[in-house]
Amino acid sequence: MAKKLQAIDTFKNDINYRDKIAHVETIPAKKASFKKADGLNDDLVEYLESNNIKLYHHQADTYQQVREGKNVIITTPTASGKTMAFNLPIMETFIENKDATAL
């Protein structure tokens, strides 16, 4: 944690950046919350359960939004599950349509 604060302090004290910083805030960590994705393909549910994979709240919500045809932007730290959130609807499409492709 100290290294992060030092990096922030470096920017705050640098003449090129200090007037451009509007706000610095450290947000405390919180316990992960999990959620089941309603309507998820049974094969995917079985795979996730057999591999002891639980979906984070934002992954299940993203799945639901994509299924409803909505656009989604996720901004979370590295290793927070963004890839899984967007791959669930793709994997489901592959299961349901053998001719489907994704880019």
Structure overview:
The protein has helices at residues 2-13, 42-50, 57-67, 82-96. It contains four helices and no strands. By secondary structure, the protein is mostly helical. The two termini are 38 Å apart. The model has no long low-confidence stretch (mean pLDDT 89). The protein has a domain at 31-96. The chain is elongated. Helices cover 46% and strands 0% of the residues.
Task: Describe the secondary-structure layout.
Blueprint: H1 2-13, H2 42-50, H3 57-67, H4 82-96
* Structural classification: mainly alpha
Shape: elongated
Uncertain runs with pLDDT below 50, 5 residues or more? Answer: none
Which percent band covers the strand fraction? Answer: under 5%
